[in-house]
Amino acid sequence: MGWQRKWAKLASLKIESGGGGGEGRTVVVGGGGGGWLGRGRVQRKRTPTSSMQRRVGGGGDGEMEEEEEEEEAPTHLNTSTCGHFLVISTDKLCAKYTGEGVHGNDVGAIQGNRPAPCRRLLYYFEMTVKDRGFKGCTTIGFTDDHFRNSRQPGWEPNTYGYHGDDGKLYHGQGKADSFGPTFSTGDTVGAGINYGAQEIFFTKNGKLVGGTFNDVKTPLYPTIGLHSPNEKVEVNFGQRPFAYDVEAQLKKERERRRKAVENVPLSPSVNHSIVRSYLLHFGYHDTLAAFDAANGGSFPPMLFTPHEYGNGTLDNDMFALDQRKMLRRLVRDGNVDGVFAKLREWYPQQLQQQQEHCSNIIFLLHCQKFIELVKLGMLEAAVTYARTELAPFFGSSPDQDLHLQDCLALLAYERPHETPMAYLLHFGYSELVADAINAFVLSTNPSLPASGKSPQSGLEKLLQQLTACLAEKRVLNGGQGEVFSLHRILQGGKEGGW
Question: Domain range spanning residue 344?
């Protein structure tokens, strides 16, 4: 490994010997004064599925889902806005009523320190009655920004309250409905918002009492109210396990949604056409032939005419099918030089334009060539290739810089297959590169409209439509409900806004 200390200047790589998969060498690639540094276990917040990796196969605009920051949930009672007749414990989780409770405006109400987070499927909190006091006028519910803390939840517009003394549910001035059982000392009651169903629901001692209202206007604050001497309660914002099984309700709600989707009837020929158009679009020629053979003519090879399908989309997917098949095979075989050769032979003018603009296609192919050299253990050749072909891309875009960081970090390890950058060495990653090349070839089709967008498969359009519809539904819902994440769903995540 004597070559490891050869490189030390700008636009160079310096590799210092290190340990195994965990503690690596130091890799420096320079194009300017400071260069770039990646060391050992590269620590950053993003996952190995970097933004560039998620964009690689982008047959469209290169868009990717933006993950919204997680909302902060209430953690304690807001003592800065509490009623005049309350004493709050030092941990801000217990409240005791000290008034006489003889007038309608001497209630002691207090909100949580934050509104209930609304970018989720459910929100829930609980209250345990430590002492019912003289009349047991304890209340749990939700209130808005304009709520007066001298009133009970449910007595004002856009507030909701489940009252312990009569078991009634209050919503707005003079609106009270028979709802559930009363609650007293030792009982634990809960209040929640089901944003998907637009419903406020309440529980008692771990069992669902019921839900009501279907037009929830946020923001709403978790709120408790006390209104007779010596009443004392303790709230639980999730700092300890709830008496009610919220996870079971979440699961039930997701199951309800899943069944609603699965119960939508679809003709088998529709599914067949979606799969077939996908295979055709991405150039899986052999798989397409096997798929058609397996179906044995049970379904028509084309469900729609090109005109019905949308300006000849199916014909466009047939464009250069054999060439796209060969390019995909070359990428799978690790023959990046062969890919460059075929692109120069078949698309010389378009390739020249891509090279002049340092496009993502050229960038990804050079990265793949570097990765193939690392796979073969040809580290000196990889270093040389990085100096000549990858260094010019530094500073071109934040995405490319992050991707280069991952690629070059492979040199920092004795066993790169055991590192966070191992995804670059997997078959799935080379398939993403092949997808990008496939999209490039399809974009050269002279019959395509000059929209500037790469063509997309029918499946991609369906998924985009799904994402757009669910985003629009959430907007119409006042921004409430779980944020839909197609990426999380496809990765098998149980939370994805489905």
Answer: 36-65+270-461
Name the token pair of 122.
């459910």
How far is the C-alpha of 116 from the C-alpha of 364, rounded, in Å? Answer: 44
Model pLDDT, residue 373: 96
Contact 287, 328 (CB under 8 A): no
The owner of tokens 């007038």 is: 103
Specify which residues 207 forms β-bridges with.
Answer: 204
Considering the domain architecture, whether residues 327 and 276 belong to the same structural domain is answered as: yes
- In this structure, what is the dihedral angle of CA atoms 454, 371, 32, 414, given to the nearest 10 degrees? 150
**What are the tokens at 98?**
């000290």
Taking alpha carbons only, the member of 400, 473, 495, 421 closest to residue 62 is 400
pTM over 0.90: no
- Helix/strand/coil (H/E/C) assignment for every residue in 2-54: HHHHCCCCCCCEEECCCCCCCCCCEEEECCCCCCEEEECCCCCCCCCCCHHHH
3-state secondary structure (DSSP) of residue 300: coil
Length of the chain: 498
Indicate whether 483 belongs to any domain: no
| CA separation for the pair 368, 422 (Å, rounded) | 13
* 383-415 pLDDT, tens digit each: 999 999 999 998 888 999 999 999 999 998 888
